[in-house]
């Protein structure tokens, strides 16, 4: 199991979109990948949990989280091989850990905990809650957006992750992200 959660190394800058549900992570991920003409890593949990919901009408269980983490790292490691100087990740294992803490009373699988900390990224783009809530089959915390944002910010602070907060409309968000990523490319 541990091997499936290990991050492969590469020669590109790794950027993670991070934050609560329905805050524009996927939209910005796609925009950034197009801007840099590179790969983006979709959120494995979204497809996995949507298939589960469609088949059984069941939501995420604690046991799903390690499978989600393994699937996320598989997607990331595959995309890394094709990335062009920047790899855009729609999420990472630290985000999965935050959801585990929130939904399962601070219970986190030991391997998820370990690799959420060991796997590293050059920049986190913490998406703020100033986007409209878009309901779907999986989203369930429209009234807890601020609490969720605070949980994600705390995780970044607690683990000393480099991040900036992304706010505003789509154009502003893209401009802010590009400026920060370009600073990394220059160094």
From TrEMBL:
Keywords: ATP-binding, Nucleotide-binding. InterPro entries: NAD_biosynth-regulator, NadR/Ttd14_AAA_dom, P-loop_NTPase. Residues 14-173 form the NadR/Ttd14 AAA domain. This is ATP-binding protein. Signal peptide: none annotated. Pfam families: AAA_28 (PF13521). The lineage of its organism: Bacteria, Pseudomonadati, Bacteroidota, Flavobacteriia, Flavobacteriales. One of its GO terms (molecular function) is ATP binding.
């Amino acid at each position: 199991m541990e091997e499936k959660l290990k991050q492969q190394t590469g020669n590109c800058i790794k950027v993670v979109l991070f934050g609560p549900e329905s805050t524009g992570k996927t939209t910005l991920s796609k925009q950034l990948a197009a801007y840099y003409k590179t790969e983006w890593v979709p959120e494995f949990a979204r497809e996995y949990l949507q298939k589960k919901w469609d088949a059984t009408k069941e939501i995420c269980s604690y046991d799903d989280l390690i499978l989600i983490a393994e699937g996320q790292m598989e997607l990331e490691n595959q995309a890394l091989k094709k990335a062009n100087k920047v790899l855009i990740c729609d999420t990472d294992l630290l985000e999965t850990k935050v959801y585990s803490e929130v939904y399962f009373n601070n219970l986190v699988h030991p391997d998820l905990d370990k690799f959420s900390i060991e796997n590293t990224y050059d920049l986190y783009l913490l998406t703020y809650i100033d986007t409209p809530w878009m309901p779907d089959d999986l989203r369930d915390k429209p009234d807890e957006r601020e609490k969720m944002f605070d949980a994600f910010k705390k995780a970044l602070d607690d683990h000393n992750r480099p991040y900036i907060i992304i706010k505003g409309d789509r154009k502003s968000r893209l401009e802010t992200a590009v400026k920060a990523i370009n600073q990394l490319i220059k160094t």
